[in-house]
Amino acid sequence: MDNKKNFSEIIRSNAVTIMFVVLCIVCLIFSGQTVPYVLYELFGRMSRNAFIVLALIIPIIAGMGINFAITIGAMAAQISALWMIEWGVSGLPGFLLALVMTLPIAAIFGFLIGNLLNKMKGQEMIGGLILGYFANGLYQLLFLFIFGNLIPLNAPGLVIKGSTGVANTIDLSNDRGFKYALDGIWKVPFGTALYVVCGAFALYTILMLVMKKLDAKKAGIRIAIAAVLVVLYQIPFVASLFAMVNVPMVTFMVIGLLCVFNNAIMKTRLGQQFRAVGQNRTVANASGINVDKVRVIAIVISTVLAGWGQLIFVQNMGSFQTYGAHEQVGLYAGAAILVGGASIKKANNSQAILGCILFHLLFIVAPSAGKNLFGDAAIGEYFRVFISYGVIALALVMYAWNDVRKKSNLDEL
Amino acid sequence: MTKSKTRKILSGILLILAVICLVVGGINLPKQTGTAGEDILQDLRVQTLLNATGDSVVESYVAIAKKEATAKAKEAGGGMAEIRDAVAKAEEETREKYSNAETDYSQIETSGLKSAITVYIDSIKDYAETEKTARDAYIAEHYDEAKAALDAKHEQMLAAGEEVNADEEVVVDMSGFEPTKEMEEKQAAAKETYKGVGKEVQGIFPLLDDAALETLEGTVEGILYQAGDNFALQYDRYTANGAKNVAGSAKVLRYADDLLFTAIFLIVLAALLLYYELLVAKLGMPRVIIGAFFVLLCFMCLWYDLSLSTLLSNTVVRMGMNAIMVLAMVPGIQCGISLNLGLPIGLVAGLIGGLLTIELGIPGWGGFFFAILVGSVLAAICGYLYALLLNRLKGDEMSITTYVGFSIVSLMCIAWLVLPFKSLKLRWPLGTGLRNTIGLDNTNFRHILNDFLAFNIGSFTVPTGLLLFMALSCWIVWLFSRSKTGEAMLAVGNNARFAESTGINVDKMRIIGTVFSTVLGAIGILVYSQSYGFMQLYTAPRQMGFVAASAILIGGASTSRCKISHVLIGTFLFQGVLTLGMPVANVLVPGSTISETLRILISNGIILYALTKSGGASRG
Fold first, then answer.
1. Considering its fold, how many domains does chain B have in total?
2. pTM for the full model?
3. CA distances (Å), B407 to each of A111, B345, B403, B541, in order?
4. B609 part of contact set with chain A, CB < 8 Å
5. pLDDT exceeds 60 at position B102
6. Would you say the ipTM is above 0.90?
């Protein structure tokens, strides 16, 4: 009896995720795409998108909902990327310098966003969304009328003669850009990557065991899992599935680092404050926390991380649409994290990663599934946009619904 | 009135400046058409004419210098190469000599030339008028023919499934036009008078031969006369064509009208400075800023000689076409769901109504009302379901309505691709689905409200039908809010808990408000489409909810309170800024999309402002 209740409870609280898994499987079957290709695409998309999705976690915990204003972080990143090309700092130095340059710009933007959102408590999500649109207007002003006109740009290809402002596409793949600056450092086939990761994991476990931070049973299980994975990969069928996958090790390491950071910060005093503010602002205020300041810090961190995430994204893509690359960042990242089972109050790393996998899996297979089912690829395109908006709407509705129900339950009591 | 002394002094200075501008401008403006203006123009004409002919004189000098150089080089017994060098050198020297040589016009006796020019201008004017009447007569005679040909072409294009531009104007083929006898006579007379001008010019530049004068005739005509000339146009043309010697008084005369505009602008500015606090208190900061911006744009239109009356006429049209969608925000705010950013639900329903009308081929008013009826019924059904959803989520509507609206729009993108419409006006001829923009034409409801009883006052067109429809809709909404149900709805919007305790069914009132808002959205998009001339499908309705919301906020509404006047003022200001902003921006930065950027900034800025006002600034 108890089990049954738990089961239905689990289904209900993970309805979005389960629905998405089913949807992905159906689309995968009808898309007619081969598994190796899908996996190849998936790893590419994960490497460039996961970071930005992880940037959403802290504001959620701090009770500000999904930070749709991360588009502004992406704008900061694109401003830095533009100047790297203008100055001709290419490759890894260019990428690193862009990271450094994004930091203060995004931090200032984050500070301003945070202060504005503090004036609309309870409306942060719609506020962030509209703020993103508003900032897009300022961004256009900057790129159309200030860069290239008031502030001259000299690098070839940045400004097209006869039109105003910066060109529509900024190319990072020439000798001035930093395409693959991060991905290209250490790129290995999937097998090698698996061995490296499993090896490192086993070593780490043994180290922990030696230092007596882990009991033998747990360590045994962990090493066994690593071993099983390696053995599984020896089966030719499994290996053939991953034949096309090349893993950009450093990029994934950076993503892993961010996960560690997200966990670590929650264990600090600041992290506790995030949590306290997220749970109840009044209580947090009464216990002496400067609520407004904590919220601003959460947004600043998120904005800077989003900027870095956008840099990872563009170095992988090799070019970006000057006036469009940032627009959908908030939407896709927000939808992804909700798909993974996060709500607008709770989120963690694994939800973000799982959501990113599922969401982008659907992105890969939806167009060809749409084409095969309805004879039109455009349907698949529109379908995935619908899914992105729909998931967010659904998550918001379900959350508000539960909230109202809880409240009315309390009223009845 | 302000208490700050500096501001009082500042506005005093502005007022004094305004009076100066007013006096100087007022004295000089009538002179433009008087003898003083004519004298200035005459002087400029001579300068421009001499400048143009002078260029050809330089060519003559160059030819002579070349000849001399060749002769000299030959005498000195040089070879071909030396001759070439000498010629090139002579040409360069001559050009340099004359390019810097400013002709001193004051030393030249020009009274003969002036009178010759006057005679000449009169005769070309005479000729041009004759030609125009002849052409007009020809066009009137052949108009029906051309229209029939165009209609046939459009029908053929539609049959072939191509896009038809409903705005395409009927162009009469002028190749069959032959000059009348009268025209030929007048032209000959004009040629004769040109000879008089030529003689005078030759008197000044003896080097100019008859052949050179003849080739110059076209240029001279173009400089001296163009259809629709007035003082400002002629002045600008002459100064652009080389008249450099312009007296200060002439400049004042040219810009007399701008001085008057500046005077009024300064007065407005002074008033703004004096009554700033009062205005902000009465209207609120954003409305003062946007209102001031609108006034500034009006003056910029005047300064840049853009047709303000045409632009204001466009503003009124755009106000009429957007007002119903903005009005749709009113029942939403009144019943307490705040800004109905889920408006696209209504818009989509209206679009389906419009599509059905075209599919079934219902013409004229019948078609328009059929579209409204179908759209309203669909909108009522969807609005009801939507209201049921909203009733379960009280207090958190805005972000949810936004995303529900977005989802519906993208869901409908799929629907537009698969809905089984047959008409080729709606479908892509090749490929699947409906067109992105569907052009309306005279067979359905294009401009049906705009053209109803429309009349012109100068270049200001009054779209009577559109304005009547807008007024009627506003009146209905106002009347509804006075009814018993409407008052109950207002009570719910003001304070749901209190309303509930007085026995009002809160959920029911919210449903009524939401349904009403959605239905108005459906009607609004149809009014918008008939005026715009196109129905826009796919992602176009996505942002329209924001545009409507920002318009009512600009008008002075908040997320919980609004009036009909907010709708009218807000729509006028918002559309006015956009309509005037575009041509002004194009003068400042040619070919830019700055007015689109402006729309983004204003529309989202005002929503942000409203959000900061609605949310608590407390820490708790």
1. 3
2. 0.79
3. 31, 10, 6, 12
4. no
5. no
6. no
